[in-house]
Amino acid sequence: MVDLSALILAAGRGIRMGPRGQLRPKGLLEIDGVPLVARSINLLRARGIPRIRIVTGHLDDQYRDHFGGQPDVELIHNPAYAETGSLKSLLTGLDGLTGHVVLLESDVIYESRALSPVEPGVTRLMVSGKTGATDEVYVWSRKGMNGTPAFDFMSKDISARTGAHFGELMGITCFAAPQVAALRTAGQAVLAENPGADYEDAVCALARDTDIEAVLLRDLAWTEIDNEAMYARAVEAVWPVIQSRDPA
Q1: Of 37, 50, 117, 176, which sees the most CB atoms within 10 A?
Q2: Which of 171, 159, 180, 227 is nearest to 200 (CA)?
């Protein structure tokens, strides 16, 4: 069995989704009748990943209704979801988890090749080309120890660094077991200073001492869904492209 677990962060309150976000977690928004997290789980299974853990918070019962009883899916609740950021959910999800981990956000839809760089024993951050999706997180890279691009910094402010950015964060990162332990340590230090920190802050902290390979998937079809406009764009513009590229 592959020593690789998937960890999906799905505790957020979805405030920017407005009334829809009050009724349904973003990870359970449906496109073509399939919830976003359900699609991710299907793609993870197709990659041979045997264990999937979902960290829930907002409307936890809906995740239990959808995925409770599935033998390869474990649901972990973050009771502090309303007072903390996604870093607390990350640490909640990592508790007791051993081996290699692929970390995913719950509110994304993407074509299957986004998971192609994921494999046990590597630490990689997946980056896309320009999406024009709004609310992008820009990623800058540096030269890694082996000469390949390594993640250096990320920000929603495109002017945060003077040099050209490498691409856009797409919410999928894999960590080899030693880096999982280091991520946990870095995350605990960040959380102690800022209880509202997001998981990206821990990744940035880890990158100060560790090379995280930055893998550019330049023309990847994908989007995050934070609000109604992004949801409409996902359904009308992004999903048809994914359908044209992915096998049925």
Answers
A1: 37
A2: 171
pTM above the 0.85 mark?
yes
Centroid of chain to Cα 143: 24
**Would you give the end-to-end CA distance of the chain in angstroms?**
27
Q: Which residues of 12-45 are buried (b: 16+ CB within 10 A; e: fewer)?
A: bebeebeeebeebbbbbbebeeebbbebbbebbe
pLDDT per residue as tens digits for the range 189-248: 999 999 999 999 999 999 999 999 999 999 999 999 999 999 999 999 999 999 999 986
* The length of the chain, given as a count of residues: 248
**How many folded domains does the chain comprise?**
1
Report the alpha-carbon distance of residue 172 to residue 126 in Å, rounded. Answer: 6
What b/e readout covers 165-184, taking b as 16+ CB neighbours within 10 angstroms? bbbbbbbbbbbbbebbebbb
Domain containing 14 — which CATH number?
Answer: 3.90.550.10
As beta bridge partners, residue 9 has 55, 105
- Decide if 186 contacts 108 (C-beta within 8 A): no
DSSP 51: E
In whole angstroms, what is the distance from residue 85 CA to residue 11 CA? 9
Q: pLDDT tens digits for 114-151?
A: 999 999 999 999 999 999 888 899 999 999 988 999 99
